[in-house]
Structures are given as C-alpha cells and as structure tokens.
Design brief:
By secondary structure, the protein is mainly α. It has helices at about 1-20, 25-45, 50-74. The protein is flat.
Length: about 70
Amino acid sequence: MFLFIIFSLIAIVAAAGVILSRRPIYSALFLLVNFATLAALYIMLQAQFLAVVQVIVYGGAIVVLFLFVVMLLG
C-alpha cells in the first residue's frame, strides 16, 4: 500500500512535469518517467501484460517518436 502511494505520487509529479516543462526534451523525459511509474503500478495490481505493453509500446515507440520529431524540428 505504501509503495503504491509512492508510485502514484511520482506519476502525478511526472505528469505535471510534462505539462509545465518549457523544453520539449524535458517534457519527453517526464513522459518516460510517467510511463515507467504506470508500469510499476500495473505490476503491483497483478497486470503484468499491461505493464509490458506500457513499457514496450509507449515507453519505447511513442517517446522515441516524440524525441525524433522534436530533434527534427529543432
């Protein structure tokens, strides 16, 4: 229970960092932290498949695509 609250607070802070950060690179890194903490929350809820999909699809593909577009436009 205590670990769930800690990961939830980290996810909320990371989500706020995505919105409030001024640089897109920092926003993408906060998004990656948010995805990782959500995967940890899924593991704690005994949903391992969702955790793996969260890390592979969102953490791997979406963040890399976002960083590629930011670097291409920058």
